[in-house]
Amino acid sequence: MKKLFIKTYGCQMNVYDSARMADLLAPLGYGRTDVPDDADMVILNTCHIREKAAEKIYSELGRLKKLKDAKRREGGAMTIAVAGCVAQAEGAEILARQNAVDLVVGPQSYHRLPEMIAKLARGAGHALETDFPADAKFDALPENNAGVGPAAFLTVQEGCDKFCSFCVVPYTRGGEFSRPVAHVLAEAKDLAAKGAREITLLGQNVNAYRGPGTDGEIWPLARLIGALAQTEGLQRLRYTTSHPRDMSDDLIGAHRDIGVLMPYLHLPVQSGSDGILQAMNRQHTAAEYLRLVERVREARPDIALSSDFIVGFPGETDADFEATMSLVRAVGYAQAFSFKYSARPGTPAAAARKQIPDDVKDARLQALQALLSAQQDAFNAGCAGRILSVLFEKPGRKEGQAVGRTPYLQPVHADGAAPLIGRVVDVRIEAALPNSLKGVLTRTLEKVLVH
Ligand code: SAH
Ligand code: SF4
Ligand code: F3S
After folding, report:
1. pTM higher than 0.90, yes or no?
2. Is 287 among the domain residues?
3. Is 162's C-beta closer than 6 angstroms to any atom of ligand 2?
4. Is 88 near ligand 3, meaning CB less than 6 Å away?
5. 245 CB less than 6 Å from ligand 2?
């Protein structure tokens, strides 16, 4: 067996892609390993979303070159591949800057890896593939094989046509593309048959999904979710990431009508200031976002909300930042991610004149994160004493312990739950700890296992 080491950066779509690359290389005799040291093949599946992403990859490649040289001195060989969004953005530049790299493959071309490796073996030199045929990629991928866990990812949509003025994704992942419904249903059925109890549908703009349906019509995400909910063995569905502009009535309705659709919504707003939202090209106002939140809560009162925020976007004043803080106070998030704006070469905002000094960004980020983490703590504390269903996914740190997630995506650990991995069970939440909840099983193991 040859050893394959994959390091994944960035979003969940990259996590999905890494798993698919492993599936693709399994027939060639590669099995995954946790350390790069003696790997026969190393893939860096990269992210380009924020500053210094490329520089970090170059320094990682420098370290890998040493391992590769050491392996060669012992008569072995290590193939190094750079995949993902930095591969797409930098392309041939990577081969030019680091000669230890053998392959550069963009996010839409990795189905060609076996062919590229074969070429390399024939001594045809370095290989570069950064084309954009997303449909061809999905058709060429094998079934999910290596390690389908209780909670699986399934990419249904890729790319983005929104062109927010700060973001590289439309350039690295290309335009919006939705996979045909039949393909998605087949992949979900296969995942469930292999033990997945929860599937998270992925897309850079997953709620913009418009896939060719089984009846010749174009299906929106809500309809796809309705069909997926019938998958045998599947107990939970989630989707991420959504854009406020694509949060349609039928999708909001799905949160009321479809039981397996979990009460959790990641709906990035980025800023609470209308001026900044406009400069970002987000195509909605703060009031429109708040109205959406209200409607989602009417449909599913217990829904947990999450968001992404950017502070220090060019031109952001104290008043703009204060508007973001008010929006956060008005919504009350269960969880959120927040970032300092970083200028991405080639995006419109990078050329804006009024860039914000780093110390101002730092102060704003700190204030925002303090508020968001207080909200998260309050949300978690509110779960103490409640009985929540938990899908146990993997062993915990302590013997016999298992870790899982609540419907609201909070991690929970429970002693003695290890035999329940892969099951959804009721758990009494005893306490909210800083990064997880502590739960106890409500029934004895014997009773749960009989059912
Ligand atoms: N498609 C998703 C987001 C994908 S990128 C959406 O529209 O919400 C994930 C997050 O990274 C974004 O939501 C944004 O908050 C952050 N991000 C993207 N570009 C950034 C930049 N140039 N600087 C700082 N944060 C950025
Ligand atoms: Fe980037 Fe905006 Fe597209 Fe999200 S919607 S991927 S932030 S351009
Ligand atoms: Fe990063 Fe590409 Fe995802 S830039 S966030 S890995 S789409």
Report:
1. yes
2. no
3. yes
4. no
5. no
Asked if residue 110 is part of any domain, the answer here is yes
pLDDT score recorded for residue 451: 61
Q: Which residue puts its alpha carbon closest to atom 2 of ligand 2?
A: 164
**Is the residue at 94 inside a domain?**
yes
Measured from the Cα of 241, ligand 2's closest atom is: 4
Residue 57 and residue 38 share a domain: yes
User: Which portions of the chain are predicted below pLDDT 50?
Assistant: none
Q: What is the pLDDT of residues 83-105, one digit of tens each?
A: 999 999 999 999 999 999 999 99
Residue 164 in contact with ligand 2 by CB distance below 6 A: yes
160 alpha carbon – ligand 2 mean position (Å)? 6
Residue 234 sits in a domain whose CATH number is 3.30.750.210
3-class SS string, the chain: CEEEEEEECCCHHHHHHHHHHHHHHHHHCEEECCCCCCCCEEEEEECCCCCCHHHHHHHHHHHHHHHHHHHHHCCCCCEEEEEHHHHHHHCHHHHHHCCCCCEEECCCCHHHHHHHHHHHHCCCCCEEECCCCHHHHHHHCCCCCCCCCCEEEEECEECCCCCCCCCCHHHHCCCCEECCHHHHHHHHHHHHHCCCCEEEEECCCHHHCEEECCCCCEEEHHHHHHHHCCCCCCCEEEEECCCHHHCCHHHHHHHHHCCCECCEEECCCECCCHHHHHHCCCCCCHHHHHHHHHHHHHHCCCCEEEEEEEECCCCCCHHHHHHHHHHHHHHCCCEEEEEECCCCCCCHHHHCCCCCCHHHHHHHHHHHHHHHHHHHHHHHHCCCCCEEEEEEEEECCCCCCEEEECCCCCEEEECCCHHHCCCEEEEEEEEECCCCEEEEECCCHHHHHHC
Q: Are 41 and 73 in the same domain?
A: yes
Do 38 and 6 belong together in one domain?
A: yes
* Per-residue pLDDT tens digits for 322-331: 999 999 999 9
